[in-house]
């Protein structure tokens, strides 16, 4: 076991978007190398079954445990973030929430339309319409954190609020469109477990030894019900109280998020990426990404649909409603961050699995398209953000230049 100072340092690092994004990228790179150099070993490990053979059918492959189990932790944290935004963040104020909410809605609708148009002809696969609709907040904020040194803080706030709303829409899409064969007895018991979770939490009951087993039961029942198990994570995150009461220094939701985020960023999401991003990449595979309807629709949806949808939705809301762009931001900043939101890694990979459960080859091509589209968005956004960062750095230097060394910036001594 690591000494306490090192443990604290690692957990603190895992709470930063940059570290989480790097781990996610590293896991994806390892998965690609493993799947292409030792494909048989990768498939064997992914398909290895573990778990009890109970009436709840928990004898699952490692890949399924990663998709349905570990990713629930990621969505649990997303649920807490969403709740916090509603009670104490940008989404609390309708006027402040208008722009990112409209941007998120348009940033989901247009990629779906772009994909649908690309797959409207013979040989198309319309079931994958939701794949390019998601934004990966870990990757997007990680890129922004690496590139930004002088960019306005309002840009990060806008992206975070946009991504939280985007996560909510993605969760609803998964629950409504990618759940099948609903077993109402299991769903009812899972909902009853959520009610008990809420009751105990509101009564001020504490103790991980009570809530963790209850959460596992809720998850298992949700998984058995046919509704995607990650929905249970979001529901439990939304239940947590995210405002302080009495002499509390932080709310229970914030405290639990502080504890769970390192597990999500440092283990759950990278392991998911390890099992989800392992696709065979070759010349013919990359050609198929740009020549076949489904993968091409995904790339265009992420690169074009997301960018135009978010930027256009923001402009329309600012132009025709009372919503206003933050004075710190310019439209060039918004275009750059709209491109950045096209990084649709984690949730897009998950939906690729859900959209084509009976066609593994098509699911793999869709995953390759997600990787290609996300990479194109990341590179394009990095270039645009660096240009904007250079602009703001020049403004900062001009405002703080002191040529005569008298301690007063020159800008305050100019006349005329």
Brief summary of the model shown:
The chain is an all-alpha fold.
Structural commentary:
This protein has 416 residues and is an all-alpha fold. The chain has one domain (15-179, 228-393): Na+/H+ antiporter like domain (Na+/H+ antiporter like fold, Up-down Bundle), CATH 1.20.1530. It has 16 helices and two strands. A two-stranded antiparallel sheet has the order 1-2. α12 packs across α13 (293-320), α12 (283-291) packs across α16 and α13 (293-320) packs parallel to α16 (360-400). The mean pLDDT is 86.
Instruction: Give the class-level CATH name.
Output: Mainly Alpha
Q: How many strands?
A: 2
Low-confidence stretches: none
Overall pLDDT metric: 86
Number of helix segments? 16
CATH superfamily annotation: Na+/H+ antiporter like domain
CATH architecture classification name: Up-down Bundle
Terminal CA distance reads 66 Å
How much of the residues is beta strand, in percent?
Answer: under 5%
Which range best describes the helical content: under 10%, 10-25%, 25-40%, 40-55%, 55-70% or over 70%? over 70%
CATH third-tier fold name:
Na+/H+ antiporter like fold
Shape: globular
Cα gyration radius (Å): 23 Å
Order of helices and strands: HHHEEHHHHHHHHHHHHH
Label the structural class: mainly alpha
- With strands numbered from the N-terminus, the spatial order across the biggest sheet is 1-2
